[in-house]
Structure formats: structure tokens, C-alpha cells
Amino acid sequence: EAKRTMYTVAIKAPSLCEICKENTATHLSMAPTADGQVCRGCLSANKGDVFPVQFDLESGDLVCFGCQKEGEPRVVRVLGQEEAKVKGILEALKTEDEQGSLDRRRKAEQLLYVQELRREDMSLKHYLVEKSWSRTWMLFRTREGSPLPGKITNHKLARSNGMLDPNIRLPLDKYRPAPETHADIVSETLWNYLEKAYGVQGRAYSEDDLHGPEYVRLRIYFDDFKTSILSYP
Question: Where would I find the DUSP domain in this sequence (predicted)?
Fold first, then answer.
């Protein structure tokens, strides 16, 4: 369901490749735990990296960059049980199903959140998500009947000039709730999904915005958050 959301969003509003940040993304990763969108050039150069099977947003085929021939990925067309599996995946991605789709999306995004919570690789760049939007998303994920959140709005994290406010409060621990904070910290992987699925009104803020002496305190927040996982067995 998360991949179907990404497919629907990509068809309506193509985004930039998550690797080079320059070319239009043409493929959606079929990895079970990632929904990245990447351009053909980056995939050809890296052979799909860890998970070579991709959904071609232009042709609508499943393709494999791990078994390229003359620089072109192989279209996944196999016989028997695998053929039925491929057909089922493609139909699930492309079929518009209003009835029940919201509940499936709710469960899929809760699973994404749990996967994020269990993530042990904290070397990824991390982003900030304004607390009130984060709470609305939490209600959608956990309470049947709750509406979808609107666009992510990070205005409360900014100064009047649009720069990140160095006085905001952030969580120090990955696993302990921090209700009296202004934002939640999420990895680039989850941020990429949320940005595409919901859109962002205004600027996105990440570790890259913590330049200068006035952001020393926020850098400590980020460092403590990312190393807090070492405190748990």
C-alpha cells in the first residue's frame, strides 16, 4: 500500500532522483523496506544497489538492474507461479481502489513508523517534522476513522526569515516520548516517504541546516538522539 501511494504521487507529480538530486525519478524501488525513487542513470551505474528490482514509472513494468544486458535492465517476465506474482504486484500498484484503501494505507504507514523505530543504522541524515503535524499523522496511523493529515508544515520551526529557529526543543532519546518538544526527528528514509506522500508547505529542515555557533545546542540534540540507541540492549 505504501508503494501504491508512492506510485500514485509519482504519476501526478514526478520528483527528483533521491541519489543525484538532479534528474527526474523514473523508477520506484520494490525493496520490502524502502520506497525510494531513482533515475535510470543512477540505477544503471549502481545496478540497483542492494535491491535491483524496480518498478518503471514510465513503462509500467517490473525491471531488474542486477541483470542488465547491453546497459538495459531486464524486464521481469517469467513463467508459472512467478508470472502470477508479478501480475498481482502490478495490478495492486495500478488499481485505484477507494474502498478499504485508506485503512490499508493506515496500516502500511504504521508499519513504516515501527520499522523506523526499530532502525539501528543512525548514520543516515535526519530531518525535523513539526510536532503538531506529527501528532496528526500519529492519530491517522493509530485510530480508525481519523482523516489523512494535510501537507507537512514546518513554519513553527522557523524564524521570520525562514531560517531554522535555534531555540526550538528537540527529543534527546529515540525511544522515549518527548511531548514538550517542537519537532520529531526522523531519518532521511522516512522523510522521503512523508515528503512525497503528503507534500511540504514551506522548507524542509535537516542536520544540514545546523551551521554556525547558534546551532551548537541543536547539534547536541541530534547527536544525543542518534547515539541514544546505544543505551539499549
Answer: 100-211
